[in-house]
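Colleagues,

For the teaching module next term, I've prepared a clean inverse folding example: a structure given as tokens, and then the sequence designed for it. I'd like students to try predicting residues themselves before seeing the answer, so please don't circulate the second half yet.
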């Protein structure tokens, strides 16, 4: 279960509220050899020594990436983008459950992070942060943030018009025109907007682009309101309540909008699910408020 933009924002907001104004007392890494080998965490575990004695100064998120800034200019980058959990444990509540990274604070509280498969947890100097792939991908201001004031219809329309490729690569991945969306949101918003996954981004009509823009904004807001999507757990362990309208969970189930048969398609080296009725060129489904 991927951590996308809404879930990363939820985690960041909660960390900002609950991480203590107390120095880091120590840390513990468990079973991180595979992550070190493929570059998902610092190859030298001693790099995390840079956090000891430092206090949290800021927390920010953009795309799938969360940045915890410390008062000694070191950043803890957390990106559990292909699944994982970030938890805050108050004083008197020893960390339990799965985690590879544990950071203890002087007040007795702790922060733990578990990365399910792909993702990153790194202690970085300012220079190393600027060179980090996940940071550059998600904090590149040339890509639109769907939760920001800059995600206007004119900006989105202009970006899509220049994206002469399939909808999937226009909305998902390192070259997408927006940050923070994965395959799960891609399938969800396209059903709600009535757009077939194999359409090309630059071929959408003005009406279709406007509908897709509205749906993306609505889905992000709903995910934030409902505490993330089903399967996600926040830093306190509470599960998200937003149900995706389309995806592999509908295998063998009817389309939630028209009752038709949901279809699996091969696309971009993977697979997506869609409704051939709601997402055909002839019949559009009702939008998000229907």
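(Answer key — instructors only)
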């Amino acid at each position: 279960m991927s951590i996308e933009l809404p879930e990363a924002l939820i985690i960041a907001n909660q960390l900002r509220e609950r991480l203590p104004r107390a120095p880091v007392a120590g840390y513990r890494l468990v079973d991180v050899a595979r992550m070190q080998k493929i570059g998902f965490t610092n190859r030298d575990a001693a790099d995390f020594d840079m956090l000891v004695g430092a206090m949290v100064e800021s927390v920010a998120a953009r795309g799938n990436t969360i940045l915890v800034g410390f008062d000694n200019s070191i950043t803890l980058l957390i990106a559990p983008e292909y699944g994982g959990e970030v938890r805050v444990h108050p004083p008197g509540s020893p960390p339990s459950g799965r985690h590879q990274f544990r950071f203890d604070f002087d007040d007795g509280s702790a922060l733990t992070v578990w990365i399910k498969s792909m993702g990153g947890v790194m202690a970085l100097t300012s220079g190393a942060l600027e060179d980090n792939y996940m940071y550059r991908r998600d904090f590149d201001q040339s890509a639109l943030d769907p939760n920001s004031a800059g995600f206007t219809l004119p900006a989105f329309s202009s970006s899509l018009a220049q994206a002469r490729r399939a909808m999937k690569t226009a909305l998902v991945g390192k070259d997408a025109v927006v940050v923070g969306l994965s395959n799960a949101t891609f399938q969800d918003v396209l059903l709600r907007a009535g757009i077939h996954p194999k359409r090309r981004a630059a071929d959408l009509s003005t009406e279709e682009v406007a509908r897709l823009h509205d749906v993306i904004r609505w889905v992000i807001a709903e995910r934030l309101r409902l505490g993330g999507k089903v399967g996600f757990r926040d830093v306190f362990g509470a599960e998200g309540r937003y149900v995706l309208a389309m995806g592999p969970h509908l295998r063998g189930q009817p389309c939630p909008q028209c009752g038709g048969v949901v279809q699996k398609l091969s696309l971009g080296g993977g697979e997506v699910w869609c409704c051939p009725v709601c997402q055909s060129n002839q019949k559009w489904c009702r939008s998000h408020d229907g």
